[in-house]
Records
---
Amino acid sequence: MATAARTFQNFIGGEWVDAAGGETFESLSPATGEAIGTFPRSGPEDVDRAVEAAKEAYRSWRLVPAPKRGEIVFRFAALVAEHKQELAQLMTREMGKVIAEAGGDVQEAIDMSYYMAGEGRRLHGQTTPSELPDKFNMSVRMPIGVVGVITPWNFPIAIPSWKIVPALVCGNTVVFKPANDTPALGERFVELLSEAGVPPGVVNVVHGFGRDVGDRIVRHPDVPVVTLTGSRETGVAVLEAAADHLKHVHLELGGKNGIIVMEDADLELAVEGILWSAFGTSGQRCTAASRVIAHERVYDELAGRLVAAAERMRLGPGWEPDTDVGPVINRKALDKIHSYTEIGQDEGARLLTGGEVATGNGLDRGFFYRPTIFGDVEPQMRIAQEEIFGPTTALIRVRDFDEAIRVANGIRFGLSSAIFTRDVNRAFRAMRDLETGITYVNAGTTGAEVHLPFGGTKDTGNGHREAGQAALDVFTEWKSIYVDYSGRLQRAQID
Ligand code: NAD
């Protein structure tokens, strides 16, 4: 899979440029340590130039008819589809996820782009009657301006598409900072947008780190909208930094998602759903199932089956066809994941399998962690409360449905949840009572589709959603328009 590492640049105002300070950083493959490329380590000055370009481009982009903006996005969708294999291979090298999942990540961007391209011909507002005669009322969606897009590394093509594509269709321009662990994918995304016909300055990419580039985007007075997907800690920092300018801040943050398995569940299906949700993408999904809440009557059997299946999973580079679990993103993540194994043991949970860095067969070159399952976990333990973001899941035993719901809800996050049951009454109660933005019945905690809202309650965000129609609310502002054709002054609430 290795190819020569390249040197990359920022993309500002339609031109490829180095960082003003001349500094660089490297992107490395988490599977092998191979260098993917060298990128500009940008600073505030580079952000300022990108914002200037985006501000200038906004003057004409907002006036391009929305269906025409949609046509460009439609061409982008077709280009991403054409380059799907290439992008998936780059993803498996730069980010580490297995090739089939990398293909899914790219497919999500294709789906989102086709969906949002169609939105160019809708962007519906409302017309309503007026309370006064000879008067016409309507509401329309207006673009807002320059949108700052800050993304994580775990869905390096899908997540930029959730943000950049609707922002563009709605008539905004963009300054994009990809995660510094996956800059090559961010760069390819923007190259393809440009190839599809997005005019210079409409999308700009500035590579670098959160504290330099991200922070400047968030504080820049000419960036009225910031959309961030990242950890809770980063979300709080961004919200605070944006407060002075009263910006629109859209946050998609962490999760601690639970799967409930009732005593009447199809256990084979539940095991499959749990494995896919807990260990897919090596547990590095915001929707990963890091808790399994099992009815006491099936707990032992479920634990046994999960351990046996987890031990059969093959670790390796994502591009090898028989790999089930790829590496985690970097050394810091590996250390954090392992520290939670120690925390879990100190708390008195029982390590049923895994709990170690995987070595041998070339795995030492990358960052591999064995699929890890803890049993006898109490709901208040740190391993059941804190986001580990790795291939670790915690089994919690409950006596009945009500306790299962209580445990599932007993966390600060509210992204995804799932229940395996054959009882339709319980399924509907769970749909009503689980305090998450997404709930699955008889499936794991992952698997969102682009035309439904995506996001979470409680500390997972700040009340917004991406994807579906809901995303339009992040990237537009409502304007209410009153047209009086009576020829006289009519006073609302008075005449
Ligand atoms: P992170 O918070 O470390 O970084 C996210 C992005 O924010 C990166 O581009 C980073 O450079 C930037 N950043 C960091 N500090 C910043 C600051 N002070 N100001 C501005 N930008 C800053 O997260 P990560 O490790 O890249 O991703 C993993 C996290 O993302 C997990 O918590 C995961 O749950 C979450 N996530 C959430 C969703 C969701 O939709 N809810 C989806 C995927 C990932």
---
Amino acid sequence: MQTILITWWLGYIGSHAAVVFANAGYDVVIVDNLSNSEIGVLEKINELVAKPVSFYKCDLRDKIELSKIFETHSIDAVIHFAGFKAVGESCEKPFLYYDNNVLGSIVLYELMVHYGVKNLVFSSSCVVYDSMHVDPPYTESTPLKTINPYASTKLMIEIMLQDLTMHLGFRVIALRYFNPIGAHPSGKIGESPRWVPGNLLPYIYWVLLGKYTYLSVRWNDYATPDGTCIRDYLHVMDLAEAHLCAFQSLKSLGTEKSNNAGSFDVINLGTGRGTSVMEMIQLTEKVTWKKLPYQICPRRPGDATSVYANPDKATTALWWKSTRSVEDAIRDGWNFIQSL
Ligand code: UD1
């Protein structure tokens, strides 16, 4: 049985992927410093899987503690989620992002080299595309440009991984996520914003729950059919399953620790369908049977008009395709948020 080390699996996407991997029969070892997640999520994950996962509270930058985990378990592959992801915060505190996201990755990859672990699935983002100047749909060869430190850390890590591929035989798939939303259909795990949510759907839920009186629609004069911005919203369970497909694809390249042939690939994870802010409001009202109060408010700085994927490569390279609708995601997310 293969052992998979996963970083920050108690966070939003990691917790869903943990369930998918454990239920596919893998031994799952979770490393999380709990800076952005709660230990209670571990209990929920274990309620959803047949075989309990192992958990270590450890910061990736703590080389000594992290190396003990590599000593204890014979790791076959790493799924690397660990990273802060708030764009605004990254502009205010860039060094926090360089330190946590980039330095954490450096320590992890150094230990992977030391212990002969070469297979890695890295969680990257569509935020690396030049969405201010290039129209969608975005393929993996769309020009890149980062305009905030969060995005830059994703690109820095991708570049670092290309080096490790060329010179140290790493086998890497970097998955560029579009907009993950929703929750596990059980309602046990999901995205639990500790602070005021910045993303659209979590904020919509807070309005529906009465924590805020209305949703601020960030302007309606963009060059889209209804004037509001368009995004590619992807069910988090589809996203989690894509990680398993990516890992299986790496496995087919060979897991022998002596195999020195490196490979690096980037793959978009999106649906290929765009949904506007107004459409999200209408879909949420339909799914929840609730009226969503909103007001048209000034633009959010740095917002791109329209961002959605060309997901064809994921189909051909990973045999993966999203299967759940935006309505499914809204419904599952709503069930989760109501259970809190
Ligand atoms: C944001 C992040 C991006 C991250 C992605 C997925 C920014 C600038 N970008 O992108 O790095 O990868 O989430 O987590 O933060 N909107 C409103 N009212 C709100 C909230 C959002 O109208 O209260 C609008 C936004 O202006 C945008 C759309 O809804 O047009 C989607 O916003 P959001 O959910 O934050 O996603 P992204 O902007 O794609």
---
Amino acid sequence: MRRPMVAGNWKMHGTRASVAELIKGLGNLALPSGVDVAVFPSFLHINQVIDGLEGKSIKVGAQNAAVESKQGALTGEVAPSQLAEEGCSLVLVGHSERRQIIGENDETLIRKFAAAQACGLIPVLCIGETLEQREAGKTLEVVGHQLGSIIEKLGVGVFAKAVIAYEPVWAIGTGLTASPQQAQDVHAAIRAQLAAENSEVAQGVRLLYGGSVKAANAVELFGMPDIDGGLIGGASLNADEFGAICRAAGN
Ligand code: PGA
């Protein structure tokens, strides 16, 4: 049985004051015991969140990390070892906003994935197709390639200590959600791709869905056999809404 996970990606949102508010809201939530809950604040707020959530079983992760695992001369970057020391346990790798807006490519993401694992962080590998790619019938090819680039370089075994988030780019922040069946179809293909290499790893890895998940659509999405929870953007900035999504994963 895979333990569900719900993770909140706060993106480039937050001030000290709004983060304090959110921490307070999260602190008051009754969270289901069978679900791993995590939040990904901006680098600036990681400390504030770790301190503020002390004693609450919510993991804290970073939205990005350097290609090198250890501290050193790499201006503007944050090393996975530094994140681990601060108390982070997870890191997003390859979110579509970083692939598309910052221009991160597979080569870079392979290094980030490996650097994170070298420091004991759990990478959450984000993969997904654009609307254009979906309409051209290329969804499985695109997602398969994004996943395949990691498997090819690092081996399928790395997914024993990683999470995968399928996030169709057209569903992120748009209010458009993949239907539960559309998401399930891609999740099943991802698991099959892993299973072709190692069935134990494929059965154990958590596959999260992301893209306009809300309390209102979470139950149906999380009810699909290969959807093990969600990566939540906009709705994770509201503690009550986020709590409701976490409870949906516990059902
Ligand atoms: P969204 O973002 O929930 O606001 O669509 C999801 C994500 O980008 O992780």
